[in-house]
Amino acid sequence: MRIIFMGTPDFAVASLRALVESGHNIVGVVTAPDKPAGRGLKMQRSAVGEYACAHGLKLLQSARLKDPAFLEELRALDADLGVVIAFRMLPQEVWALPRLGTFNLHASLLPEYRGAAPINRAIIDGATRTGVTTFMLNAGMDTGSIIAQREVAIEPTDTAGILHDRLMEIGAGLVVTTVSQIAAGEVKPVEQPSDDESLRTAPKIFKDDCRIDWHKHPDAVYNFVRGLSPYPTAWSVLRNTNGEEMTVKIFAATPEFGAHENTPGAIFSDGRTFLSVTCRGGYISITELQPAGKRRMSVAEFLRGFKGIADSVFV
């Protein structure tokens, strides 16, 4: 069976690698165009593009997926099936082109967490289970008929990075299984439920969405921090006694529960080993952070270079 694979980041590479190593015929790989990166603005290829080139796979790149020349390249591949993972919204001209259609791997148990950030949103919401889903593409956002799913537990200490890597490997296995079942004619996709307002969604996360609200309970702040770690990263503004402010990214923390009358954002620290921030109904003990313009570091490293921390406040 002739397969076109479409994807961009490392999450997609795992599935592409699994398909190649299991002997499936990848006749073309579509990924994002190279873009400038670093101080020298050297052009950088996507993770999927790097893998495709390293393994001699035909690589296609186009900023405009409806471009006639690009569509003609796709038609010339005479594909039976399309597989898309962590790419972009495809126009119908692309996903309907393969003889058997195109399926997607999504990092949630659809129909829950449709959207661009299912891993982050599940942890932020305090969910205890998630998974991966393969489904046939249609014109909607993650609304196509479901082919197969694998459920995964979300552990209390999982960060978005840890869960990402677990789902990446489990998803790769599901992609190979799905392709094999489609090739054998064994797939009977099940239509997703119609739109339900009770379903949780996973819209794209922007920088302003990552600011910590210290008025929330410790468990909510803790889930927020780990759900955004290591990327795009929760952050807050640290204000010292002179009124000077500095943005601080927070990568790791632990919740502490207990009644108090302190103002949210107030700091408790010995100036050497710990830094706790007041929340509603408890505290958050920060263990790993990154001040603006500095590297990521432990709280002990940070405190060695920051004087007067106990008189400062997070706002």
Describe it.
The chain is an alpha+beta fold and 315 residues long. Helices cover 25% and strands 28% of the residues. It contains 8 helices and 16 strands. A 7-stranded mixed sheet has the order 5-2-1-6-7-8-9, with helices on both faces. Strands 10, 11, 12, 13, 14, 15 and 16 form a 7-stranded antiparallel sheet that branches. It has a two-stranded antiparallel sheet with strand order 3-4. Helix 4 links the parallel strand 6 (81-85) and strand 7 (102-106). Helix 5 (118-124) runs antiparallel to helix 7 (218-227). It is elongated. The protein starts with a strand and ends with a strand.
Question: What attributes characterize this protein structure?
Answer:
315 residues, alpha+beta, 7-stranded mixed beta sheet, 7-stranded antiparallel beta sheet
Q: Average the pLDDT over all residues and give the rounded result.
A: 95
Structural class assignment:
alpha+beta
> Distance between the terminal alpha carbons, to the nearest Å?
57 Å
Q: Which band does the percent of strand residues land in?
A: 25-35%
Give the topology string: H per helix, E per strand.
Answer: EHEEEHEHEHEHEEHHEEEEEEHE
Strands side by side in the biggest sheet: 5-2-1-6-7-8-9
**Basic shape:** elongated
How many strands appear in the DSSP assignment? Answer: 16
Low-confidence runs (pLDDT<50, min 5 residues)?
none
The helix content is 25-40%
Radius of gyration: 23 Å
The helix count comes to: 8
Q: How can the largest sheet be summarized?
A: 7 strands, mixed
